[in-house]
Amino acid sequence: MKLNLAIKSFLQYCSLERALSPLTLNAYKKDLDQFINITTSEYYDAIDIDKELIRSYLLFINDGYKPKTLKRKLATLKSFFNFLEREDIIPVTPFRKLHIKIDRSKQLPKIIKESSLSKILKYAYLEQQKFCPTSNAYRESTRDICVLELLFATGIRVSELCSISPIEIDLKNNKLKINGKGNKQRMIPLCEKNSLKILKEYSRLYADILHDSTSFFLNRDLRPLSDQSVRRIIKKYSSIAGVTENITPHMFRHTIATMLLENGVDIRNIQILLGHSSLSVTEIYTHVSLSSQREILVKKHPRKKI
User: How confident is the prediction along the chain (306 residues), in pLDDT tens digits per residue?
Assistant: First the structure.
């Protein structure tokens, strides 16, 4: 079977039998397309892929990506060839006798400085006040604040934020339903007063449009807000606030998790909030909060009483 047809069959299997999300399917397709473009062509036979070709591909991409990304690309290839073997499209996967070790050292999550976060939110509200409350500019700036506040209030992923539908955000009972990775759903209570206030204002300003919309957050063309638009919003208000850090949407997630941990919130509650399937993923934030641990040891170590 030609590689292009094999990939098509694999993606259909992932969609229908494994029920993977469109985002995951798109990531798989990009990884497999990259493999084809670098090593062979789409008309190459799947049966002709051997371990030497896999090695050549990994050597080619090794210096261009972080270990976490390399691991994902490798996992995609393994899953693809395991599927081909199970379906008897190839006699044996080329990974059968291939032993690859990728540096698994964990990089500590980057967080936003508290002063920088304060400035960004402050100037976002100041920017809103420049516009007439009935203008489109005011409405769009309200949306921008909503995006910033919700990212920080809940720690949701940018993909999760962009896929929120109007029926998934309940501002009467103050709760938000999130469809996370692997189509896993979780319910997040909306408790933070600033985020609730601006969400209700946004909902009021866009009420007529949201009634018939499949997306809660909309761009100026009233289409679903994209992750790139969210990045531009963060960049815009970082620039206005004079914040020089390169802040990404995911850094809001790292920041709220770290701050909650430092404020004494149980790590299992943080795991549920973030939608981590394993506690080990959440535990990386324990390495970030060393300053809090040091303060606790200085003030509360029992040696002082002995």
Answer: 888 899 999 999 999 998 888 888 999 999 999 998 887 776 788 898 888 888 888 888 887 788 778 888 999 999 999 999 999 999 999 988 787 776 655 566 788 999 999 999 999 999 999 999 999 999 999 999 999 999 999 999 999 999 999 999 999 999 999 988 777 888 998 988 999 999 999 999 999 999 889 999 999 999 999 999 999 999 999 999 999 999 999 999 999 888 888 888 888 888 888 888 777 777 777 665 555 556 655 666 564 565
Query: Long-range pairs for 118-123 at CB < 8 Å and ≥24 separation?
Result: 119/241, 119/242, 119/243, 120/148, 120/234, 120/237, 120/238, 120/241, 120/243, 120/247, 121/145, 121/148, 121/149, 121/152, 122/241, 123/237, 123/240, 123/241
- Spatial neighbors of 141 by CB under 8 A, at least 6 apart, are 124, 127, 128, 131
Select which of 123, 157, 237, 254 is catalytic: 157
**206 catalytically annotated:** no
99: annotated active-site residue: no
Helices (H), 129-248: 136-154, 158-162, 193-205, 207-210, 227-240
Residue 55 is among the residues annotated as catalytic for this protein: no
Q: Is 301 part of the annotated catalytic residue set? A: no
